[in-house]
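okkk here we go again. third time trying to get the zinc ion bound version out, last two times i messed up the smiles copy paste (missing a bracket lol). double checked this time i swear
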Amino acid sequence: MEQITANFGLSLTAGPKAGQTANRLVWQRAGIVLGFIAWLALLGAAAWVVLTFVPDQFSWQLAGHAVALHDIHNKIFSNAGLLLLILPSVFWLEVVMVGWKKSSLHQILFALTPSIKTDIAFLLMDQAHLTGQLARLMMLGLSIVSGEAIQAWLAAHTGFSISAAALPLAVQVVLYFYVYSFFDYWAHRVGHLPWFWPLHRYHHSADEMSVVNAERIHPAGFVGLFFLNIPMAVLGASPEAMIYVNAATIALGYVIHSRIDSDFGWVGRYLIQSPLHHRLHHKLDMSTPTGHFSMAPIWDHLFGGWGGKAHADMPIGVDTQYRHGFWVMPDLMRDYFDFFKGLIGRRTLSPSEKTP
Ligand SMILES: [Zn+2]
Ligand SMILES: [Zn+2]
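finally!!
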């Protein structure tokens, strides 16, 4: 009962009225759980319809040319998986933990702020595949380098080849989550170097945490993209394991940006990052160095960054001005040019940027 009281932000006093309120909260929670189960059942039914009635390959004649679409099921599932399964699951988890009124979903639907609008703009840009196109343009094609191609090249030219395909998939997923988070830790630290900071700064510019804040990533943040899937492929992750590791890191990315007021105890100390520790990473006050870079805290313990105790009301953000709102291009371009200005020594650092 105490848990429910805390989660829904209502105080219970003794007496019949308190009993009614408690009952209402139990029903509310049961409704949230049942609603989610119904949602999953609906998704299952939709997946069955796609598998049964939508062909996986399709070709037709267009003005004398044969046009073909391949792998249609996978395309549908990978697009829908994020918007219909991973994101709603984390929204749901947050509502269960913090209550409807404090949740990111409530804010998105009923109380939009400029900062949340920016996060939604990034989510939509990603879904419209605009972020990928912008990344290709801004990274001058670097983002299309494929890990599998490098792995094949290494095997052919140096004989170097590792494969974990013989391990059970669940073991591979856990193993490569830690491989992924190791490289992500270093990529993230590089993002905090004064040179690369303008490309990572946008992520930190949010002035309030929200599940969708995880989407706010500058398309030119190539440090991240470049370092992650390539080493995983070279170190022998099967494409199947990579899909699950990517799904898990996307889900965890949403969770650590949520408003769940928890440090996850020892799990958050060693195994996976907690929302409160990620909040500490987003702290506005950069007079002391930033820590908590990794989705797997073990890397912060080993290589630096594990810091003090996190708390839910720590102010977050950056001291660089952002306009926020749905129209994100001016800020995106400013940060992109700031990066190049930094390369040629034409960018002056604000005090906070010296230890971002
Ligand atoms: Zn960061
Ligand atoms: Zn973050």
